[in-house]
Automatic annotation (TrEMBL):
Name listed for the protein in its UniProt record: Tigger transposable element-derived protein
Span of domain HTH CENPB-type: 1-46
Pfam family, one: DDE_1
GO cellular component, one term: nucleus
Keyword DNA-binding appears in the UniProt entry: yes
RNA-binding keyword on record: no
Molecular function (Gene Ontology), one example: DNA binding
Keywords in alphabetical order: DNA-binding
């Protein structure tokens, strides 16, 4: 799922798998995690990209001058943050259960990518339906399917484009206009987020360039929470496959190649994962980036 690894994530996944396998006395101790990392060649390194390059004077200035006026003008329920994330939806999460020698990054499954747009409001009480961009508009698994669990569109390179984003915003603008609401949409400054002038219910608020790791709520833990729940569902499905295989054909090895996820199945799993992201998680992420109303 293209999410960062950490010791707590490894611990959580190990204990989840042990629980599913009925290993009641298993504990993923620090020593066990270190042995696991050495055995599988896992190295946890500090990210040296945007986080390290953020200019704190810029972020502090935005928090001190721009953010207070935004919070004064709009209610918590009317301040939204949309953001995109990539999903290698067919890859087994973190390769915890993959066979030795298998890889996701350069394999066929890594090409099976979708882009997911998530959007939440500051109160944490309104999670907008996911917008998922796939490669094909009508893959075979969607034949005769009238209703999808999420909003879905397609682009051959599976990226978020300015046209897709604008179309999504125009629909959202009409929705809020009918509700009599006027909202602020806080977005990162990138080519996929063009400034749209003819919106009637939505005001654009652009974050300063290269500051999303510090100022964007979705980048704190909302996306990670969504991906964690998606990974959990994938692990459980794979474990169920192993159980079924062991029951029906115990002498035949189970390969991750026999574990298949269709685009439609992935959309349902994404919807379920999104439903599990809690209001409290969203609130905490907004607070962490300085979105805090003064009572």
């Amino acid at each position: 799922m293209n999410a960062p690894l950490s010791n707590p994530i490894l611990t959580s996944q190990a204990e989840l798998i042990a629980q599913e396998l009925g290993m009641k006395d298993f504990t993923a101790s620090v020593e066990w995690i270190e042995r696991f990392k050495r055995r599988h060649g896992i190295a946890l390194r500090t990210v040296s990209g945007e986080v390290a390059a953020v200019d704190c004077t810029v972020t502090n200035a935005w928090k001190e001058h721009d953010l207070p006026s935004l919070l004064k003008e709009y209610r918590e329920e009317d301040i939204f943050n949309p953001d995109e994330t990539g999903s290698f939806y067919k890859c087994l999460p973190d390769k915890t259960l993959a066979l030795k020698g298998e890889r996701c990054t350069r394999g066929k499954k890594a090409k099976e990518r979708m882009t997911v747009l998530i959007a939440v409001n500051m109160s944490g009480m309104e999670k907008l339906p996911l917008l998922v961009t796939g490669k094909l508009l009508r893959p075979r698994c969607m034949k005769n399917v009238k209703n999808l669990p999420v909003e879905y569109t397609a682009y051959k390179k599976v990226w978020m484009t300015g046209a897709i984003f604008e179309n999504w915003l125009q629909k959202l603008d009409r929705k809020f206009l009918l509700q009599g609401r006027f909202i602020a949409t806080v977005v990162d400054n990138c080519p996929a987020h063009p400034n749209i002038d003819d919106l009637r219910s939505i005001k654009f608020v652009f974050l300063p360039p290269n500051t999303t790791s510090h100022l964007q709520p979705c980048d704190q833990d909302i996306i990670n929470s969504f991906k964690h729940h998606y990974r959990t569902r994938t692990v459980r499905k794979y474990l169920n496959l192993i159980k079924d295989k062991m029951s029906s054909a115990p002498t035949q090895p189970t390969s991750s190649e026999t574990f298949r996820i269709s685009v439609l199945g992935a959309l349902y799993d994404m919807r379920s994962a999104w439903d599990k992201v809690t209001e409290q998680t969203i609130k905490n992420c907004f607070r962490h980036t300085g979105f805090l109303k003064v009572r």
